What does this fold into?
Amino acid sequence: MNESLPFEPSPVLFAEVLIPLALPRNFTWALPPELQDKAMPGMRVEVVLGRNKKYAGIIKKLHDKKPAAFDPKPVLNLLDETPILHAQQLLFWEWMAHYYLCSEGEVMQAALPTHFKLSSETILLFNDAAGEDFSHLDDEEFVVAEALLIKKELRITEVQQLLDASHVYPVIQRLLEKKVCLVWEELKQTYKEKKETFILLHPQYNTDEKLADLLNNWTAKAPKQLELLLAYLHLEKTEGEVTKSALLSKSGASADQLKGLVSKAILLEEKRTVDRLKSLPANVSINFTLTPAQETALAQLQDQFSQKAVCLLQGVTSSGKTLLYIRLMEEALRNGKQVLYMLPEIALTAQVIRRLREHFGGHIVIYHSKFNANERVELWHKVKSGEAKIVLGARSSVFLPFRDLGLVIVDEEHDSSFKQQDPAPRYNGRDAAVFLASLYQAKVLLGSATPSLESWYNVKQGKYGLAQLTERYAGIDMPQIGIVDTTGLRQADKSRVILSPALEEAITQTLQKNKQVILFQNRRGYSPYQVCQSCGWIPHCKHCDVSLTFHKLHNKLVCHYCGTIYPPVVICEACGNHDFQQQNFGTERIEESLVERFPHAKVARMDIDAIKGKHAHDALIQLFEQQRIDILVGTQMVVKGLDFDHVQLVGILDADAIMGFADFRVNERAFQLMEQVSGRSGRKGEQGLVLVQTRNPRHPVLAWVKAHDFETFAQAEMSSRQQFGYPPFTRLIQLSFKHKTADVVQAAARQFAAWMTPNFGAYLVGPAAPVVNRVRNQYIMDLLIKLPRDLHLLQQCKDQIQLLTAHLHQQPPFKSVIVTPDIDPI
DNA sequence: AGCACGCCGACT
DNA sequence: GTCGGCGTGCTC
It folds into this structure.
């Protein structure tokens, strides 16, 4: 019966496991017989890596090929009974690691909620073999040894409580040497279900009669308890169920009074597991009609989706793109599919959420950076089971384990915040979403008023479908744009002008009409700093090649690159003078001068410094919506995801700061930004006005913005991109080399470039030192590669980069040079 | 990412 | 003479 047949599948013996680390390749563990028929890809396993470090890894593959080069260690445990993700996630992670040149472990690290990752905790075990003779121990060692003898094991935190927390490690070290104890690592499950105590009426009063009996015969004693009981009965009637905390806070009773009722067996306490994500009724209400223009666009999209996986919806600001999204989402829902709606984090405002909740209620879940780890685990499960139908989230929501994804919407698709900059994986959420969708045969809708040139190119190539909305909703005109030439204008103190007379006049008029004003200030290059009045010296960071930003609120200097905080400078390091001034050209300074000039207007500031936490942001938006603020000054935040009905005037205070960057995307960014900003002006009722202050009024971008002419802009920009060999006509890869010695990075980068030259010499730019050439005491060199659009060449180049990086690390002088590839840098 | 091993400087 | 710094390499 059980003889082995020649074609019988061999038993699965090994598991390729992903570990949340930047390992160069995936590792393999052996599955002990008792786990072999339970293990499945996507389940977490407990494994030991190295001496005794434990990790929760994820099984990627099961196989029976014994590795030749090493003897795999055994998997200790299966941590899940069912996989925590779908097969698509593993494929998605693999693609991302390959495409963005990082390890699958790094992708896993970014993808999984922290509580799935489990941290290991060091445990001290008593070594029975050492015996109980502690005479050779000093006082502190003795204390720990005694405790260990009794408890047999201690965690580090417990040892810290036993001793003076400052020096537990040396003591543990000595105990280890004297063999009194052993260490072991234990995996700690950090996800905790949320429990809440509910209050119930004791079953002995389960009929009205018995209850009435109890109330009628209440003794004169304990009137407070009677009061509490009545409060309970009221709450129970109105809310259905009563939690302990709600009862106590609403009745104002004390915990002791409740305890009294419980001990008399009148009320009962019961602990129940509850859901952290409050659920709303899950009904769909689509109760609006589309304009003819919207209907046409919707039909176009539906038509194109029959042939194309990705469509672009280009619609001018307030053309009602969201209504089309809602229609498509509803359609996906009707087909039993899930929807991922991605937008830039900063645009994920209460206003946007409220608007979608109106239509989809409890079908929508939100995923953003303010979520805590426990909430993320619960959301993960809801998405995996398919219970959550629509996910509204930022970049990282592409990692959620969709069961049956039917539609992905990437709103504000051009936004650069979809690209993750710092820790690997340096992925673009929009592009990753397109790939993810392909795994589910789902459709992707990219939406923007000012599409990225990459997406526009894909439309022109026929790869993406297109629908356009060229007029604003409800027949509002596009705002009128005025260019204010500030050349020659100077403030009394000779500093650059903040408010031109023209803008001041426009503000006055707008305020007179009881309308609101938004003033936009690009933050870059406008951070407050300290400067010596005698010699112009500016304090710099000790570890980075940047000047320090002055934070007025905390009266501190801060390095925005490494985060180091310094006290304000009093003595100039260059000339010894004591004459320091704070230059603050930021929104703060603008706010000050507005208050001065418009003393009766209510002015508020919205930037990272003024907004602490999401709630302050939402609160400020509400105040502005309710017209309790007249003038709102801010950075990017004021233009994303917000619609205000009474804004009549938008001022762009310094367009030169937007247009003056030395980077090939300046024009694209400038156009996008100004178009987005001006879109805030003129909603209900009349046409809005936008005033752009510049010293370069003939800049071509301004003309396109003035005409709201995306297509002409795109055409012009495309031809210059083509001419200079930039995306979308090429693919970029940026390599950063970092090392603590300037000469070493330089040599390494040059060496690397020299090795690349035979195959890719024509495409290299640099190596060169970036503008900020030292961060955290590491010198930096950048090498840019501009590849023609050719998938084979791209792959070849990536392979070559990985090979040469390994090769570089074999050269003794370059061993510790860090090489970071950035694919499709922004 | 940890962690151990190993080779050079500032102390008992 | 030793303690300890961190540079380097390895972990299935």
